[in-house]
Design brief:
The complex is a heterodimer of chains A (about 250) and B (about 70).
Chain A: H1 2-46, H2 57-87, H3 96-118, H4 132-187, H5 200-233, H6 236-250
Helix pairs in contact in A: 1-2, 1-5, 2-3, 3-4, 3-5
Chain B: H1 2-6, H2 21-43, H3 56-60, H4 62-67
The chains are: A mainly alpha (about 250), B mainly alpha (about 70).
Pfam families (chain A): CbtA
Protein name (chain A): CbtA family protein
Keywords (chain A): Membrane, Transmembrane, Transmembrane helix
Chain lengths: ~250, ~70
């Protein structure tokens, strides 16, 4: 029965990831694409190396964007659902929906926001092609580090909770996470490859739209998956029946 | 005791039962790897490393890669 629960949660996670991916795609198309176009426009004006277009811009900004964002949504949906199976009933007194939203908020922070604050998203024409190897390694390293620190902080908080109570245990766990993240920020190398004369406002708007896409994705995932998980784990008729019994028993 | 907590009662939302780790592990390993492979193709293929020759995968997911925050080129 439990193995079936894991499978059902995984399937629902991937579906919720797909749904959240659709929402993120809408945000990406309307908020992000105008900035990508402006950045490519800048690139066209300031560099004279014209590469052969393998995939046309109109395909990149529609079908290509959709493929990337939806696959990303499904993949993270699946991973988050598996993490949810571990977290369920273990992180504290949270029901299925609250656990889903908590997990998804933590994922947004650990998987995206924390790496983003050190190595933010860059529009086309920002970034030196020769350093792609270094930048990719640093980005994934930061992501992995942040994820491990988040898991570590959760375990620390859980361990301290019986002695210090939930409030202080959570404060110490969050403080430990912030401190170690700060150290990682301080010691990992800085990447600054913004070309001269690249508009600062365009860079800001691009990065803000990138953050908006992730916020939509994870908020959408948390709410959708929470709803699906709630219905799977606490089916309505059963809840109604046992509530009825409890009320009957208490009177 | 953990079992009794799992029973929903009126006005007190149920704390769900824990799923045993050995039930989760095989799913987590197999699907975890599969999902990471998907993420690799969206986020990094034909950038720093390549499984396939050429730049088709890179160019196809180009906009998504930029907007999702991956280092692109």
């Amino acid at each position: 029965m439990n193995s079936a629960t894991v499978r059902n949660l995984l399937v629902r996670g991937m579906l919720a990831g797909l749904g959240a991916g659709v929402l993120a795609l809408i945000a990406a198309y309307f908020l992000g694409e105008p900035n990508v176009d402006s950045a490519i426009h800048f690139e066209g004006h300031h560099s004279h190396e014209h590469e052969v277009e393998v995939v046309s811009r109109s395909l990149q900004s529609t079908a290509g964007l959709a493929t990337g964002v939806l696959v990303y949504g499904v993949a993270f949906g699946g991973i988050a659902a598996l993490a949810y199976c571990f977290a369920l009933g273990r992180v504290g007194r949270f029901g299925p929906r609250a656990t889903a939203l908590l997990l998804s908020g933590t994922a947004l922070l650990a998987v995206y926001v924390v790496p983003f604050l050190k190595y933010p998203a860059n529009p086309p024409s920002v970034g030196d092609a020769d350093t792609i190897g270094k930048r990719t390694t640093l980005y994934f390293l930061m992501m992995l580090l942040s994820l491990l620190l988040a898991v570590g902080a959760t375990l620390l908080g859980k361990r301290l909770a019986p002695r210090l109570g939930n409030w202080y245990a959570t404060l110490i766990a969050v403080a430990a996470f912030a401190l170690l993240t700060g150290l990682a920020y301080a010691f990992l190398p800085v990447v600054n490859e913004v070309p001269e004369h690249f508009p600062a406002t365009l860079l800001w708007r691009f990065r803000l739209s990138a953050l908006a896409i992730q916020t939509v994705l994870w908020a959408g995932f948390g709410l959708l998956f929470g709803e699906l998980a709630e219905r799977l784990l606490n089916p309505r008729p059963a809840v109604a029946r046992s509530t009825g019994q409890a009320v009957a028993a208490s009177h | 005791m953990a079992q009794s907590v799992a029973q929903p009662t009126a006005g007190n939302p149920a704390v769900p039962a824990k799923l045993p780790l050995k039930e989760i592990a095989p799913w987590a390993v197999f699907f975890g790897v599969l999902m990471l492979v998907l993420l690799y193709f969206v986020g990094a293929e034909q950038g720093a490393t390549s499984v396939f020759n050429g730049t088709d995968v890179h160019e196809w997911v180009h906009d998504a890669r930029h907007l999702l925050g991956f280092p692109c080129h």
